[in-house]
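Re-running the complex after MR caught last week's input typo. The corrected sequence lines follow. Everything else is unchanged.
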Amino acid sequence: MAAETETRTDFGEVSRWKDGVFKYVTLAAALFGVVTLGVLLAYVTVDAVGWLDWQFLTSPPHPLPEEAGLFPALVGSIVLMLLIALVTFPLGVGAAIYLEEYASDGRLTRFIQLNIANLAGVPSVVYGLLGLGLFVQLLSFGYGTLLVAAFTVSLLILPIVIISAQEAIRSVPDSLRQASYGMGATKRQTIRNVVLPRSLPGIMTGTILALGRAIGETAPLIMIGVPTTVFGVPDGLFAKFSAMPMQIYTWSSYPDTAFQYGVVSAGVVTLLVVLLSINSIAILIRNKYQTERS
Amino acid sequence: MSDTTAPDLSRRSGQNTREFAYRAVFFVCALLSILTTLAIVVTLLSDALTFFAEVSPIAFLTGTTWSPANEPVSFGVLPLVTGTLVITFGAAAIALPVGLLTAIYLAEYASDRARSVLKPAIEVLAGVPTVVYGYFALVYVTPALSVVFPTISTFNALSASIIVGIMIIPMVSSISEDAMSSVPDSLREAGYGLGATRFTVSTSVVVPASVSGIASSYILALSRAIGETMAVTIAAGNTPRLVDLTDPAGIFLDSIQTMTAAMVQLGASDVTGQSLAYRSLFAVGLTLFVITFAMNLISEWVASRYREEYR
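Corrected-run output:
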């Protein structure tokens, strides 16, 4: 009897010991990336202190680190993002409406769906080549212009916008659609009066998050020839412009430590602050409508 | 106005063409995604084919020197492929185990509260712009590594691999966690009913049951590592060299060049629209596109198996 309980306790102890260790191993893994990123962000924020000031945000680039600023790139990024929003929002929502409301579950629909999923995984540098070949060489929209960049990055984030808009549209309960049809409404009226208003917060959230990704994209801009240093803000769709990630890329290749640990840090913090604000807007929209509905 | 049926009917017939027009517009939007894929293939192929008219595909795929802009020009893609493989293996060594353990923690151990904090925090890793990761690798990770490895170059494969690995952790963890969460609870309860601990249930029941989802996340993460551009361009440098397996330290401590970094270098240089160097850009791009597209398709196919299993 005593021997039996002993073995059972042994068995239990060994297993529980492994179980406890494993729990902390998995927890450590879950924290690994987050903590590393946190440390890196702390470093870059400390380095940006003293460099990230009003002068930095309102001045053009300059070979002297004390004079250097991010203004043209900051404005360029924001204008680019607005243009991308104008292109991707209607196209992405349109495609999502077709796939969710009109398409039957046929071979073509499944092909389109698979294709969208695959496009989301195509490296961004390949989209840069698409922009270079299609918009710069074939359509002659000009090397490194705002319009080419807007179209190129739009195609890049379009799959993400479509997928998130589809999810938002799918979450509209079917009973609402049936009520609308029961009232004699047509499909178009149902979509306009019932489906879209109800799914708009979700669509907006997804689109804004995708725009957050667009603002950090660098490789496609390099491929379509966005200039590395620009001193003014863009004055038209065919103007050359700069963007924050381009400026960070350029500065990070300067050997001067005042650039590496000062000016670039300030640029990185600015980019991350803009990105964070964009994402907070998306989360605010989502939370506002989630609480209203429940 | 008193007769409601007649105007209603006439409006119906007018409505039908409008209904059709709306459907057509939405269809065109959806079709645009297929047109994008076609445009990518046509753009890459047309320039790559004129490139392959002058440089034989065999010389391209087996050549061991990559020097597109400097004399003597040489277009051997192997150094770029091995460079890409080094980064991919390095990143995989971090992201695959860490991502899987993270998924196990989130799916099996974490309380609802811990999950609601950790999950979005891990997703942030994927949202940081890659140019920022590249900068982090260059100015923070490499100096930290030089304490351990004094011979490390300013540009090196190791810090680029580490940072790419961190970047793709969410890709592994979120898809794997989805797969683990879709494992029916009855399987877990059967395990607990036999007296198994959480450790045994996680590793012997949940992980094997969600293996196709995990495999799919692995393939997708590797595909992302292969296509990653800015971090490897900034941190790994621009030295196209064949990896020398007899020099294990040199593999990671020295500068290399990946396919994507070579594309950025060519794209940023002033190669003209008609030169061979410009066209080689599209040949490398086509190689990269084919590899990543195939991997994404395989990942999609593998993932569809676990979805069907537990539906």
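None of the earlier attempt is carried over here. The radius of gyration of chain B is 25 Å. Residues 1-11 of chain B have pLDDT under 50 and may be disordered.
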